[in-house]
Design brief:
By secondary structure, the protein is an alpha+beta fold. 25% of the residues lie in helices and 24% in strands. It has one domain. It has ten helices and 14 strands. Helix 3 runs antiparallel to helix 5. The termini are far apart.
Length: 293
């Protein structure tokens, strides 16, 4: 029985983490329990400066989209598809989840995953066998603390090959550099960059980053990790993500560059808006206009 419990994410301690900072002391955790295959390869992802919704798009593409994952068409063991367990992370009293099967409920899965700040993939299972394929750290720190205390530095475990997508099919979506919540003061939208293991962040406390280590296990013994984003191919991706990040940061505070009010890590804007709201006055219509009306 393979049993991976409380696997800590690669965590970078910085001033924001110390200030906002329960996640500086309590890294995200993820666990997965399964019967070991003769060959048991798996991937461990660790993200920084973002939240668990950052994995929504890559998981959707890897487990539900044959344009990304030809195994959905070619591998008989994958033809029945996968079941997504999705959590409403705004629910603080209990785990509020829904299970949706792909491909039949594909549009419903898309409707939920398009909002990665509220609906987050918790796990994915193969429908043919019921075996666990992916597990994500879905706990939101503001649910634990009762208020928003920072981005969660989420981690994820995925089994690959045979009845699951191949390693390349899991990694391919990260070439997009999709926009996620995070970055400077945890309050912006920025592209996520696939990085070498133990990479730091330096541009506006970002961009958000994700690393991936590949392992195999036999008889409960792990191999040494392989760095999945070390290939020269990913240098081109990193260059593209850098350009996307700079373009978005040029927009500063305006519009889509920043998160919605309820997702801002720092509450100064909300407090200032509350102060300004009390200073608004309702302008009375001119008398002649009121009579004409």
């Amino acid at each position: 029985m393979g049993d991976f419990r409380k696997a800590p994410g690669v965590h970078h301690l910085d001033l924001d983490a110390a200030e906002g900072g329960d996640h500086a002391r309590h890294p995200a955790v993820v666990e997965m329990e399964f019967e070991e295959r003769p060959s048991e390869p798996f991937l461990f992802f660790a993200a920084d400066k973002t939240d668990p919704g950052a994995y929504n798009l890559p998981l959707y593409l890897a487990f539900a989209d044959p344009m990304n994952t030809p195994g959905l068409l070619l591998a008989p063991s994958m033809k029945r598809g996968f079941t997504f367990t999705i959590m409403d992370v705004n629910e603080t009293e209990a785990d509020r989840i829904i299970e949706l099967r792909a491909p039949e409920r594909l549009y419903d899965i898309a409707v939920l995953l398009r909002n990665p700040e509220r609906y987050v993939v918790e796990s994915v299972r193969a429908r043919a066998s019921g075996h666990i394929a992916a597990a994500v750290s879905t706990s939101r720190l503001h649910n634990i603390a009762g208020k928003y205390t920072g981005k969660d530095d989420p981690v994820m475990l995925l089994r690959v090959q045979q009845e699951f997508p191949a390693t390349g099919e899991i990694l391919a979506p990260y070439a997009t550099g999709h926009f996620v919540a995070g970055g400077m003061r945890g309050s912006h939208n920025m592209p996520i960059m696939p990085v070498h293991q133990n990479s730091g962040v330096s541009y506006f406390d970002g961009p958000p980053s994700v690393s991936c280590a590949a392992f195999s296990v036999h008889g409960g013994v792990l191999t040494e990790p392989a760095d999945c984003f070390a290939s020269p191919f990913w240098n081109t991706v990193r260059n593209t993500v850098s350009l996307k990040a700079m373009e978005m940061r040029k927009q500063g505070f305006f519009g889509a560059a920043m998160l919605p009010m309820n997702e801002l890590e720092y509450t100064g804007i909300v407090e200032r808006l509350n102060e300004l709201d009390s200073q608004f006055e309702v302008r009375e219509k001119p008398k002649d206009t009121a009579e004409a009306a």
